[in-house]
Every structure is written in structure tokens, then in C-alpha cells.
Amino acid sequence: MTTKLMIFDLDGTLVDSLEGIAFSMNQVLKENDFETYPTLKYKEFVGNGIKHLVFRALPEEYKDSESVEKYYSMMIKTYGKHYGAGMNLYPGIAKVLDKITNLGIPLAVNTNKNQDVTDFIVDQYLSKWSFIKVIGSHGDYERKPDPSGALALAKIAGAKPKECIYIGDSEVDIKTAKNAGMKCIVVTWGFRDKNYLLTLNPEIVVDHAKDIINYID
């Protein structure tokens, strides 16, 4: 077996976290008398971390850096209380993680989500499985699609980039895998429309979690 590491994105790939994100940001917007959005609209805002989501959700006249920092701070506090709203593992993910574990292939997480919230989610929803490292957004690594996090995970696993599979649900993940020189599997159950994903010419597309196993070498 040549696959020596499976790296997963978190939101939209392992866990459906959209409701908690939408509820929390809408709370911030509502408290400041700004327009709120339907939950599904937040699919357009996610992918580059919470600060970018805040920037996208704010009214145009509040997109300056000082305002973004202010409302980002509010969002982090609010999301820390409500991140679990409606959250669950996507169908079939548990079985896939079981299978990968049984094959003896290390697991890792690489996300642009705030590190503290990422750790809470992994501890609460993914504690059944062992991950060699969980990399969220903090100062040690550049944000995706920069490959530094993915390459650090490969190094920890003692794997070459070509021996790693990167699994995600967005253009950010596709670019991250490409930048890292890793095989990429893009999933269609997450935060991006399948037709849009296909325009990016992804290497591998899967509609069901169980199909991930078919691409392990």
C-alpha cells in the first residue's frame, strides 16, 4: 500500500457545521442591526476561515480592517457558544474513518477554522478516531491554499507528498492539494455545488463517503 496519510478538511467534508456558522454570524449581524442571511447563503461565505466569512457577511461600508476585526472578535465569542448547533458527521464518514484506521493509514485534519474551535469539534465529534495532528488556523502555518500545513502533516507521518491523499469540499482544498503535490479527492456533499466543482477540473470527485476508499493505493 503506497498511501501513507489521509488528510481531511473539516467543515463540509467531515462535519456539517453550516447551521452553527450561520446562526452565530446572524446573531452578530442582528445585534448590530445589519441584514441577516438564510443558512444556505453561508455556503458562499465559508472556505477561507471565520475572519473571511465575517468580511463577506458584513455590509459594504463595514468591510474596513478595523470593523472586520471588531466583528470577527464578536463572531468568535458567539460561535464558541453555538458552533455545535445542528452539527453532525456526514453520512458514511464514520465508516470511512473506521476503514482507514483498520488499514493502518494515519489520519490528519487541515482546516482554516480557528484552532480552538477546531479542537473542540474534533474532541466532541471525532474523538473515536486518532489523528496524528489537527491543524487549524493559527500562527504556525499559513492558511490554505498555502501547503505548509499539509506538508507539515506529511513530514509528521514520514510520508512523501505523493503518498498522501487530501480530501476536501472546495476550491481551497483543490488548490491546497495541488500546491502540496498531493492526490486530491473533492467531495460533493459539502459547501460547494457539484457543477461548480466540476468547472475546476478536480482530479477525483466522489458523491458518497464510501467511495473515498476506492482511491486508496
Description:
With 217 residues, this protein is an alpha/beta fold. The protein has eight helices and eight strands, in the order ββαααβαβαβαβαβαβ. Helix 1 crosses helix 3 and helix 2 packs across helix 3.
Brief account:
InterPro entries: HAD-like_hydrolase_sf (IPR050155), HAD-like_sf (IPR036412), HAD-SF_hydro_IA (IPR006439), HAD_2 (IPR041492), HAD_sf (IPR023214), PGP-like_dom2 (IPR023198). This protein has 217 residues and is of the alpha/beta class.
Draw up the topology in text.
Elements: E1 5-8, E2 15-16, H1 18-31, H2 50-57, H3 65-82, E3 88-89, H4 93-102, E4 107-114, H5 115-125, E5 131-137, H6 148-157, E6 164-168, H7 171-180, E7 183-187, H8 194-198, E8 204-206
Parallel strand pairs: 1-4, 1-6, 4-5, 6-7, 7-8
Antiparallel strand pairs: 2-3
Helix pairs in contact: 1-3, 2-3
